[in-house]
Write a structure and sequence with these properties.
By secondary structure, the chain is an alpha+beta fold. Helix content is 52%, strand content 23%.
Length: 359
């Protein structure tokens, strides 16, 4: 029950922020907003304020803003209608939804760095046979405090340094053992491992695994701002890299795209790790949602931007018939994608349990 509540809260915040982006710019530009809805289907709560009807609907997996004259079939040419505004102004109405999601992702990363997050220390939790650490008499419980004189406090920093080393490289580790500091030379071995996108790459390895010792890390206000920007940029680059690999067939959509069911499962895992894990997942999801919504597919914001570009080039809007056909194709593509993604989520996250039922 708690997981379901957290799942709906996460989705709800992302949706409201997205739709509020469309809403606030439409109001600013002078477009009358008729409806602002969280969710679809049966309306549970409705309240009208001025020209806008605000509602919460039964199916909380989405939301929408309905603007006056925002489709050609009902457009009457009134000055407060969507299609009465020039393409440049309509562009800002469309793009501000994804933009606010993107900004929300950055703000959440900034908050995480500022309030503190748990990270693994450099304490050795295990040794791997055939690699340098065991041969050099590194022991479980040792704490690595420096590599070649460069201080390290966290497992992530230690990994980054060691992974950059090449075959037959030797490093001098400063190791804290029983309150005594030792200097130990360890040979690095280069091996192929899977990166975050599942691609093989060669990295240097010591042959140790992390312990479960964690440390709370906090940064200053301005430093957190900078780290939040870096994190958002890194995630953006990684997302576009993954998309390029998907389109070229180097990355499977099955293993890299998830839908509401997958999001629910990941939310349940994050909830067990605490508030910071939920906020981190929410930040990643918000940035990803912003990027996904800019895909040039009908129904999505990117599709509407594409229509604007075509309109600008032609000097007039598409015909009602053409727009209707394109939107129908877009809906078909989105629904088909949703079905495929949902099936993949079921098999990826619950496939083992399903198999056990039929044994």
């Amino acid at each position: 029950m708690l997981t379901a509540f957290i799942f709906l809260a996460v989705l709800g915040i992302l949706i409201v922020v997205h739709e509020f982006g469309h809403f606030i710019i439409a109001k600013k530009i002078g477009v009358r907003v008729e409806k602002f809805s969280f969710g679809f289907g049966l309306r549970l709560i409705t309240k009208k304020m001025k020209d806008t009807e605000y509602s919460i609907s039964a199916i909380p997996l989405g939301g929408y803003v309905k603007m006056a004259g925002d489709n050609l079939e009902e457009f009457q040419g009134k000055p407060d209608e969507y299609f009465s505004k020039p393409p440049g102004k309509r562009f800002w109405i469309i793009v501000f939804g994804p933009l606010l999601n993107y900004i929300l992702g950055f703000l959440l990363f900034w908050l995480i760095f500022f309030v503190g997050y748990p990270t693994l220390t450099t304490k050795v939790g295990g040794l791997i046979d055939g690699l340098g650490a065991k041969a050099a008499d590194i022991r479980v419980g040792d704490k690595i405090i420096a590599v070649d004189g460069e201080a390290v406090d966290y497992w992530e920093d230690l990994q980054e340094i060691i992974h950059s080393k090449k075959e037959a490289a030797k490093v001098r580790l400063s190791v804290l053992r029983d309150s005594q500091e030792y200097s130990i030379d360890v040979f690095i071995k280069e091996q192929a491992v899977d990166d975050v996108l599942g691609q093989k790459r060669n990295v240097g390895l010591l042959g140790i695994t992390a312990s479960d010792e964690i440390k709370e890390v906090r940064h200053g206000f301005l430093e957190s701002f900078s780290l939040g920007l870096d994190k958002t940029f890194e995630l953006t680059v990684l997302t576009f890299k993954a998309l390029r690999m998907m389109f070229t067939g180097k990355l499977s959509m099955k293993d890299s795209v998830t839908g509401p069911l997958g999001i629910f499962y990941i939310t349940s895992q994050a909830a067990r790790l605490g508030v910071i894990a939920i906020l981190h997942f929410m930040a990643v999801l918000s940035v990803s949602l912003a990027i996904f919504n800019l895909f040039p597919l009908p129904v999505l914001d990117g599709g509407h931007i594409l229509f604007l570009a075509v309109e600008k080039a032609r000097g007039r809007t598409l015909s009602i018939k053409v727009e209707r056909v394109i939107n129908q194709i877009g809906v078909t593509v989105i629904v088909s994608l949703a079905l495929v993604v949902t099936y993949n989520d079921i098999m990826r996250f619950f496939g083992d349990k399903i198999s056990n039922i039929f044994k």
